[in-house]
Specification:
Elements lengths: L3 E9 L6 E21 L2 E13 L14 E5 L2 E9 L7 E10 L1
Antiparallel strand pairs: 1-2, 1-4, 2-3, 3-6, 4-5, 5-6
Length: 102
């Protein structure tokens, strides 16, 4: 059984261009893929994770505006690529997000 991990979803404020806490919850966290490569002698790591959370109306906007939100998990910043509301049943949302470290 998957253990739920604490995550924080942040939203960018359009006026100040600062990230602000939007929603905190527990999620099932799974690593989907990862890769490492070098660019100008710099090691770059890209990890893609899936974060599955319980659906609430407050998260509806994240489905179509992924670039305005990000996830903080274990002090890492994850840029949201996609949000899946399976068959639009509004039971769970799966956030697909990348973390790139240099």
């Amino acid at each position: 059984m998957a253990q739920n991990k604490f995550i924080q979803i942040e939203k960018i404020d359009a006026e100040t261009e600062e990230w602000k806490s939007y929603y905190q919850c527990y999620a099932e966290v799974n690593k989907a893929s990862g890769k490492e490569y070098f660019n100008a002698k710099t090691k770059i790591t890209q990890n893609t994770f899936n974060f599955k959370v319980r659906y609430i109306n407050k998260l509806e906007d994240t489905i179509f505006n992924t670039n305005q939100y990000r996830i903080i998990y274990k002090n890492n910043v994850f840029n949201i690529i996609n949000v899946d509301d399976k068959q639009e049943k509004r039971l769970k949302l799966t956030f697909v997000a990348d973390c790139i470290t240099i």
